[in-house]
Amino acid sequence: MGRGPSIEARKNAQDAQRGKIFTKVIREISVAARAGGGDPAGNPRLRAAIDRGLDVNMPKDVIERAIKKATGELEGVSYEEIRYEGYAAGGVAVIVDCLTDNKVRTVADVRHAFTKFGGNLGTDGSVSFLFRKLGVLSYDAGADEARITEAAIEAGADDVVVYPEDGAIDVITAPEAFAQVKAAMEAAGLAPGFAEVTLRADTDAPVSGETAEQVRKLLAWLADMDDVQHVYSNADFGAAG
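The structure assignment produced for this chain is given below.
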């Protein structure tokens, strides 16, 4: 199973696109609150969305306003959840999760991106079978492996993965256990540097040279779109240098 981007790379990307991140988080909060209610204590998806907002220093009043709009206390916009699947250059599988108020616009934009960078948009299920949903709590090099492993096992995590190339550690959980494990790790004084419920591929697609560059550009282009919440791929850039 391939490893995602480093914590530093993820954080740098967030800092560089603070406005866009805010847009995405507000949409996620809105959909989560509309689907499961405005109380994060009884709505794990909303709790995760609020945590993501706080992680990027979103003001609490902005978060509260988004919840009120979603629950009808304030007038707001209704967003639809849509997933697109396709292949990038080199046979790299890509999943694009969107929240949009205009499906026609979004599918046109996503299709254009795939075409522009040598890929093609597929049908539902065309690549999703290559991925599995899981919770990931990431720790940078230098973290206490023994303490993390012991606490993770006690908290109910599925696995602890140590990456020998840099000593970073991932704690892997079932999606439904993510919030519980994260809370337990934080209570043990082991707050992760980055934590999310994500999709990871069981097999990677190595790419290099011009193909790798095309794939990078497609993934970046998609991630930069306001309607796009998450982009997942099985690209392995290890051979690209």
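Interim note for the steering committee: The mean pLDDT is 89. The chain has three domains: 7-70, 80-129+202-240, 141-192.
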